[in-house]
Amino acid sequence: MKLSTLLTTATLALLSGVQTVSANIQFVTPDANTKWTGGTTVQIDWKDDGSQPSLDKFTTFSVWLCMGSNAVPLCDTILGPSGAAFSSASTTTKFLVPDTVGGNGDVYFLKMETVSPTGGMAVNFSPRFAMSGMKGTFSAAALAEQKKGDTTPPTGTDTTTPAAGAPAAGDPAAMAKVPYSMQTGPTRYAPMQTQPGTKITAKSASRAYPTSSYSVFKSRGPKPGPVTTQTLTWDYKVTSLENTAAPAPTPTKGAKADLQRVLRRWRDDVEN
What we know:
Oligomer: single chain
Order of helices and strands: HEEEEEEEEEHEHEEH
Mean pLDDT: 78
Strand content: 15-25%
CATH architecture of the domain at 11-158: Sandwich
Region (Disordered): 145-172
Largest sheet: 7 strands, mixed
GO biological process, one term: fungal-type cell wall organization
Number of helices: 4
Signal peptide: 1-23
CATH topology of the domain at 11-158: Immunoglobulin-like
Domain Yeast cell wall synthesis Kre9/Knh1-like N-terminal: 29-130
Shape: elongated
GO cellular component, one term: extracellular region
CATH class of the domain at 11-158: Mainly Beta
Structural class: alpha+beta
């Protein structure tokens, strides 16, 4: 799948005040041991790390080659053409790394922006890796930032928003009306338990809700997104009534004798 340029690096400034979150994309390649040669075609791979939002929440993505520090990542080189679609079923792609964007060194890393159709995006960074065979030079700004000595990648951010009409997070009553499989986040909500009526009118059994599909894992899957399910508490009052039925009569002499015989048999079994 080809990569696209959908957003400019100016979006980094827009994200400066955004709270950072756990990355939903985890780079597999490149990693800290990767050594690429400038001017060659390389392959990148990633996977869903299991946190929210999941990869199927995105529709487009872009990748940049970066250098600089964690505080000021310099991501001026877009990799790949524009117009590519993102699919959770495809987690690999190839592109040409230009050899004129900088010098040699283990100061490079990738930035991937995945865009949600409901608004916002997730920004994730790869580990830093080495480039050789480079014919360019580092800018003064890049050299200044690289002197800070960062060896880990910057922290990712997530500014995705829920779909239009979706209830706000933290509203259990509204969230419980959303089908469970369509809810996101570590906490899911279930409607309150239904109570039986005062009369039985049904002549045959029927399903209260339609069945749902499922898929069987053929290999170890990612860690589950949901952690807790909260069921809405009752919004009605339950009234208890005293049982006015007369107690059962005292057992007859014959029934009492039968009970004593059973007790003696039980005692003999225990003692033996």
